Amino acid sequence: MNTISGRWHFKEDFGFGIDEGFAELEQHEETVTGVVVYTEKIDEETPFRVEQFVKGTFKDRKLIITGTKVNLLDVEKQFEYNLDTWEGELNRNNQIVGHSYDNHDCFGVFVMEKIEY
After folding, report:
1. Measured on CA atoms in the order 66, 12, 72, 16, is the torsion positive or negative?
2. Which domains does the chain carry?
3. What global pTM score does this model have?
4. What is the pLDDT of residues 70-116, one digit of tens each?
């Protein structure tokens, strides 16, 4: 796979909940930009949707993207949401598998799978 541009199914487990949705990525040379939109389901809380704009790099099959802006969707009251960083590697099955973290010590593991139209 020469480019990771396109839509990817996204699923992440961060220990006390699950994020699931999609990533829409655009790659120009090694630079990657896009948006990750997902429903966050935290144990015993009402789920809500997140739209996180990202920027980063894809080089030597390694993806690193970091949130630059976030919008909280479907929430009754806005609150502070910590931007994420996702670091993963494109494997032989054309999945991007890796880990995530934010600046408040929340860590997760994720898988992205390309959605073919």
Report:
1. negative
2. 6-114 (2.40.128.120)
3. 0.92
4. 999 988 888 889 999 999 999 999 999 999 998 878 899 999 999 97
